[in-house]
Design brief:
By secondary structure, the protein is mainly α. Helix 6 packs antiparallel against helix 19. It is a multi-pass membrane protein. Belongs to the SLC29A/ENT transporter (TC 2.A.57) family.
């Protein structure tokens, strides 16, 4: 008994440190892109003719979706450590390039700088495909709390970038070129944050005892993707494969068919959300007493903060529920949110800013809650390699929903000269 207690305590070392690191890594996965969308007021000023809030998202998504489709198909043979490091480093370099581009062009608009921003947006998409699918797949065979913390970090990134943008905009509001100065400070902070995520993943996360335990366990179940992570943690990959017999795992097709309801839920959640946020909110919400603060700062901040609340609320409830209960509840909630989103049209046409803020908050709340419900429930009951593959498949459908949403977002422009 003492031996088992000692083994358990040794295995659990670093649990809370790992949860904290996962939260920061989740932030880093979307911090750069949320910075790009949150700075929409500045890009709207620089490129008023090019619909930057819509175009940048539309450029970002095909690269993210296409890259992830390739990675998910070849997931079983990909070095997860190299994949995630590439993604975080790409986020860091791309965020730095946004800052360099603005400084090099002295904040001028025009088609040249806009093409440069679009190219950086495409790089964000490639980085996101590497990190989001890689991390969710990797964490799916560890403690549920790790995946929940990572997803909470994803949601919190929007809240953090919104708060940071509010602060930087207010700090320079009354100064000459204040909008640009706030944007430069904003992206400088974002760049340092992404660098911190690179260092956390490269040197801290793989050395935590509990992380090494779960990666060794996954290797013993047939996973070949964790060998570099084990080596980074000071373990010989061969130790984890000792006694490994021929392991038969479900194919990607079988995993998808068994979890098609979860995949469809994620697709619909994000298709509906991205058909409204951020393009519709940035260009089609009319004129309000809050002026330029309403569209980008108030609405975006409301969405991101309440999405964070929804994610953390889901963390407190889904871990106690059986898989079938979460599936039924998710499908039911998804139907409600589908009809609720139609209210945006009527609120824009007939109501004031209070209704828009309330509906935007509901959009964020449902989005954060349902995402955590699906991604933390689906991997239950599978072996490590299958959980990794399923995590990649679900993120692929998530990004597919985002791509469908940003495409449908252009329908709001019908009758407005497009």
């Amino acid at each position: 008994i003492d031996r088992y207690i000692y083994h358990y305590l040794s295995m659990m070392q670093g649990k809370y440190a790992a949860i904290l690191v996962c939260w920061f890594l989740g932030n880093g996965c979307l911090f750069a892109w949320n910075s790009m969308t949150t700075i929409g007021d500045y890009y709207g000023y620089l490129f008023p003719r090019y619909h930057p809030s819509r175009v940048l998202t539309l450029v970002y998504q095909p690269f993210a979706l296409g890259t992830l489709a390739i990675l998910a198909y070849n997931e079983a043979n990909i070095n997860t450590r190299r994949r995630n490091l590439f993604g975080y480093i790409a986020f860091f370099i791309s965020t730095l390039l946004v800052l360099i581009l603005d400084l090099a062009t002295s904040g001028r608009g025009g088609i040249g700088p806009f093409i440069g921003v679009c190219a950086i947006s495409a790089a964000f998409g490639v980085a996101d495909a590497h990190v989001q699918g890689g991390m969710i797949g990797d964490l799916s065979f560890m403690l549920p709390e790790f995946l929940q913390s990572f997803l909470a970090g994803l949601a919190a990134s929007g809240a953090l970038t919104s708060a940071l943008r509010l602060i930087t905009k207010a700090a320079f509001e009354n100064s000459k070129n204040g909008l640009r100065k706030g944007a430069i400070l904003f992206f400088a902070i974002s760049t340092f944050f992404e660098l911190g995520c690179v260092l956390l993943y490269a040197f801290v996360f793989p050395k935590l005892p509990i992380v090494k335990y779960y990666r060794s366990k996954a290797a013993s179940e047939g996973s070949k993707t964790v060998s570099a992570d084990l080596a980074a943690g000071g373990l010989s990959p061969g130790q984890s494969y000792e006694g490994l017999k021929d392991m038969v795992r479900l194919s990607n097709k079988e995993l998808l068919l068994q979890n098609i309801d979860y995949a469809f839920d994620l697709f619909m959640i994000y298709a509906l959300t991205l058909s409204i946020f951020p393009g519709f909110l940035s260009e089609d919400t009319g004129s309000h007493s809050l002026g330029g603060w309403f569209k980008f700062q108030v609405c975006t901040c409301s969405y991101c903060n309440v999405q964070c609340v929804g994610s953390h609320r889901a963390i407190c409830t889904t871990y106690k529920k059986r898989k079938v209960e979460v599936s039924e509840g998710t499908s039911y909630s998804n139907s409600i949110t589908f009809f609720a989103r139609f209210a945006f049209y009527f609120a824009t046409k007939y109501s004031d800013q209070g209704w828009m803020i309330m509906l935007t908050s509901f959009l964020g709340l449902s989005n954060g809650y349902l995402t955590v419900c699906v991604l933390t429930s689906a991997p239950e009951g599978y072996k490590g390699p299958e959980q990794n593959a399923l995590g990649n498949i679900l993120v692929l459908f998530l990004l597919g929903g985002i791509f469908a949403g940003v495409t449908l977002d252009w329908l709001w422009l019908i009758g407005k000269g497009w």
